[in-house]
Amino acid sequence: MAKAKINPRKDGLQDRARDKVNFIIEATTQLLEEKGLSGLSTNKIVERAGISIGTLYQYFPNKESIVHHLLQKLFNSLADDMVKTIHGLDLEGLNLKQAVDLLMGRFFTNHETQKKLMSQFLLSVVSVEHLKFMLKNDERVGKALKEKFHPYFKDLNIEDWDATIFIILYALKGIQFGLLFGGPGFDHERARSEVSILIYNYLDRPSKT
User: Fold this and answer.
1) 41 Cβ contact list (under 8 Å, min separation 6)
2) According to CATH, what is the number of the domain 15-63?
3) pLDDT by residue (tens digit) across 26-75?
4) CA–CA dist 192, 69 (Å, integer)
5) pTM of this prediction?
6) What does the pLDDT look like over 88-107, one tens digit per residue?
7) What sign does the CA torsion over 74, 42, 131, 114 have?
8) Domain 70-203 architecture
9) CB-neighbour burial class of residue 207 (10 A; exposed 0-12, middle 13-18, buried 19+)
């Protein structure tokens, strides 16, 4: 089977062309939220966007290319929001448990706002090309977490903070994935509370003897 082309046809778009691309992306977003990935087609996209099929093909070679572009835009935005949230946390005067609780509150709020669209993407086959930028985003979020929690390092018995941040980040991503696809029926507050306990106890571990 031939590999589908996922890169847009045009880079460095002018304002007029960028507007058309935005129409396509917005239409695709709406259709994904309404009908899911299985109900998406280029014909439906151009109908919703109010453009011709020829115009769409000027910018994207196929449906997969549009979905990839939207996926990359979404996950880049999520990473940007998470990094901004982490940097914006005011931990002055908070102990570790309070700091973790605050972080979890922000994390689950961000999750709630994006979970419907994200679930449609995660139901699709994520290619290696998709994973490349996702891993770069994970690196940025991990770095922000490490910088924000640096003041607590001296009080904790952790030998390798890079490994610890990695575990926390991917624990959160795994939990997020589980919540998208059912989970045990946790509501927002219950999930936040349980994950806060998990991370706090992981960080506040006894020293090795």
Assistant:
1) 63
2) 1.10.10.60
3) 999 888 878 877 788 999 999 999 999 999 999 999 888 898 888 788 77
4) 31
5) 0.60
6) 999 999 999 999 999 888 88
7) positive
8) Orthogonal Bundle (1.10)
9) exposed
